[in-house]
Amino acid sequence: MHAWPASEVPALPGSGRDLRIHDTVTGEAITLAPGPVARIYVCGITPYDATHIGHAATYNAFDLVQRVWLDTKRQVHYVQNVTDVDDPLLVRAERDGLDWVALAERETALFREDMTALRMLPPRHYIGAVEAIPGIVPLVERLRDAGAAYELDGDIYYSVEADPHFGEISHLDAEAMRLLSAERGGDPDRPGKKNPLDPMLWMAAREGEPSWDGASLGRGRPGWHIECVAIALDLLGMGFDVQGGGSDLVFPHHEMGASHAHALTGEHPYAKAYVHAGMVALHGEKMSKSKGNLVFVSALRRDGVDPAAIRLALLAHHYRADWEWTEEVLDQAVERLDRWRAAVSRPDGPSADALVEEIREALANDLDAPAALAAVDRWAARQAETGGTDEGAPGLVSRAVDALLGVAL
After folding, report:
1. Which pLDDT value is given to residue 246?
2. For residues 225 and 256, is the Cβ–Cβ distance under 8 A?
3. What count of other Cβ atoms lies within 10 Å of the Cβ of residue 173?
4. Fold for domain 305-405?
5. Domain segments of the chain as ranges
6. pLDDT tens digits, residue range 356-391?
């Protein structure tokens, strides 16, 4: 599966700072100091509907991570998956009378278009669950053969008891885990499971649903968590730098994925840092496909909204914060974009060297994009009030905003 085209990232004078970011496991900010190649895995979409603002906010956060690393002159090995076969996709396809493959391809293509318009840097590897199946099957077999998985009516379940580190990511008690498991795709009440929290690794073929050859597992399709683990271990290996996603993935997805990897490799940790973006609400409720309270990026673009304004609306909120999308949020972003473009359109202006360092410092401090925006606002205000004599300043500001914030002026 191919990703989307990369926008050029302008080179800036000097060098960026190492990223200090909030780690879900420790509950504290930690300084990331990757090697020459920084490794990041971000969980992707299940393509049964278009990209909404909540998706865009999450991917914007990890786009900033990439940009901070690139500014330190590192390379970035970024991997993202697409869960292109799963129950929600099959349910939506049946509801709308569509072929599930065609639905997945259509929505994945639209996602690519939205990411391109928002200037999100693409992953080096963009992998679908279906194409990952040949690598998933052997991992499930290994877990089963090692006694870390068991069969139940043809389905294969992972035993959370196989991992002594289970629970270290979410820090939840068993009852909270059970409730979230039921809410987020698990089946804690299924009779016969060794532990209600045990997640499915391989679902035996169901009549009328797609299935694949699973060798000794029989025909079926993979569970959600093992999909990401197979892709990440294959392309990044254990101990990669950042596991990213929305805060709704902390449990069960990231907890279970790490547990699978620990049991498979005997190594710990799966990732050096777990970084999670907050949720975006609309009309007082979390924006989600299941509730249908969505603002689609593609719809905003069709209405003529500049993608740079959409991106500024996202950047105006700290990535870990839960916030609400409103017309006022978008209006403020449009106004800010107009001010910034007017400021950089002049032939000279106040020196921008200090501004570049302010943006770098803000982003290195747990991706504090609102502080970075405020710094650019102050420079634009000085430009409007008094101007300046530095002929290179407007161009430097434009390049810095593009390189570090992903906003094209």
Report:
1. 97
2. yes
3. 9
4. Four Helix Bundle (Hemerythrin (Met), subunit A) (1.20.120)
5. 20-286, 305-405
6. 999 999 999 999 999 999 999 999 999 999 999 999
